[in-house]
From TrEMBL, chains A, B:
Superkingdom of the organism of origin: Bacteria
Domain HTH tetR-type: 7-67
Gene3D superfamilies registered for this protein in UniProt: Homeodomain-like, Tetracycline Repressor, domain 2
GO molecular function, one term: transcription cis-regulatory region binding
Pfam families named among the record's database cross-references: TetR_C_1 (PF02909), TetR_N (PF00440)
DNA-binding residue intervals: 30-49
Name of the featured protein: TetR family transcriptional regulator
InterPro entries: Homeodomain-like_sf, HTH-type_TetR-like_transc_reg, HTH_TetR, Repressor_TetR_C, Tet_transcr_reg_TetR, Tet_transcr_reg_TetR-rel_C_sf
Biological processes annotated in GO: negative regulation of DNA-templated transcription; response to antibiotic
Protein keywords: DNA-binding, Repressor, Transcription, Transcription regulation
DNA sequence: TCTGTACGCTTACGGTGTAAGTGCAACGGT
DNA sequence: ACCGTTGCACTTACACCGTAAGCGTACAGA
């Protein structure tokens, strides 16, 4: 007689996990809490996912799906620029994702597709295999490194001035003149680091290498 | 009558924590295990450190001490190159460190010194405050991003071929031609990504920006 | 000699992921 | 119409985590 509820499935578990992690942080993503979120006891989740690592792998791969890599035929530089900016947006929208991608081993379907498209645009653009590897790796280093710094470092991002105010009093200007100078500047200007600065620097460098030497 | 042992102190606790994390990974660094390592019960550690976070902050800051940033008077480009390579070596020697730096909030004495020296060489080299911020941030994005990829991504580093062999069978060459191509190349050539490729690309770009526009 | 403090110890609590076992409801084959 | 299988939920229990709280003892300074 009771209303038969829609049965759970892997997809719904992963979606709920993403929502929960986005809203309350990755620490809040526990099996019991996630179960509660989808209206089920913790252990019931194991009917749909292998274990917690499977969930983490799953949500990372699902999120990668959102990254936009332009299709074959797009100019490589334009494609890489678009891809990097899109990836950066996605990683900022899911602040737990960058760290998970870097700290875990798996390559799922989403990751493979994303990678294949990336390498494809580079190869079509005239890069050798080695060149494409270097380009990909350099672009991604900047992507992940920048995003992680942006999300975690005290004096980056919006809260810069708030945190800086906390930190400044403890810093002697004689001992650390340059740190004090920079923090002062950040506080006054409200400046936020610019992802595209490093991105364009790298893209131009890659282009020069491709045409030159 | 029993031999009076050297009393523990914060320094020895942190050193032991670093050794343990280096040898068995950060997961093995639990309070009980660390206590065991220094010959003491877990709770006794709390006489020397505030809590586990204090330990993590402490070992990160201690490790940063090992990074070599050339003194004032050194050419900025040479100094940044040296600093980046040194930092990369240190982060590879302590594979848990990069992730911890990126995922935690504190800036201790070691971090501040390291940062001040970095900004100092850039400012002395002619960078504006904003320019120095951009340069620092871009160099560090590459440093951390590259290192994390190197330490964690399946097809990077030495184990590339081993892991690739595991992964390849599941990849259809029609669906993911470029991934298959690249993995094949990595397996044949045993190629390992090169930190200095991206580093020099960035340094040259920074130099061009400094002299040009 | 007395006493305060530093530093070790033990016990206990609430949290984690998950192994193992139970029970119910729907479905397919006879 | 029955009945075995299967899918999916539930409950219980375990080992391990960080750490709060409290106890005991040995040394240093008065």
């Amino acid at each position: 007689m009771a209303v038969r509820r829609e049965p759970l499935n892997r997809e719904r578990v992963l979606r709920a996990a993403i929502t929960l992690a986005d809203k309350e942080g990755l620490d809040a993503l526990t099996m019991r809490r996630l179960g509660q979120e989808v209206g089920v006891e913790a252990m019931s989740l194991y009917n749909h996912v292998k274990n917690k690592d499977d969930i983490l792998d799953g949500i990372v791969d699902l999120v990668l799906t959102d990254i936009d890599v332009p299709p074959a035929g797009t100019d490589w530089k334009k494609a890489m620029r678009r891809r990097s900016i899109s990836a950066h947006e996605v990683l900022v929208a899911h602040p737990w994702a960058a760290m998970q991608i870097m700290s875990r081993y798996s390559i799922g379907l989403g990751m493979t597709r994303y990678l294949d498209a990336t390498l494809g645009r580079l190869r079509e653009g005239g890069f050798t295999i080695e060149g494409a590897l270097d380009a990909w790796h350099t672009l991604d280093s900047h992507l992940y490194g920048f995003t992680l710094q942006q999300l975690n470092l005290p004096f980056a991002a919006d809260e810069a001035s708030r945190v800086s105010a906390d930190v400044l009093p403890g810093l002697s200007a004689e001992e650390f003149p340059h740190v004090v100078e920079v923090i002062g500047h950040v506080m006054r200007s409200g400046r936020v680091e610019d992802f595209e600065y490093g991105l364009d620097l790298i893209l131009d460098g890659l282009e020069a290498g491709l045409n030159g030497s």
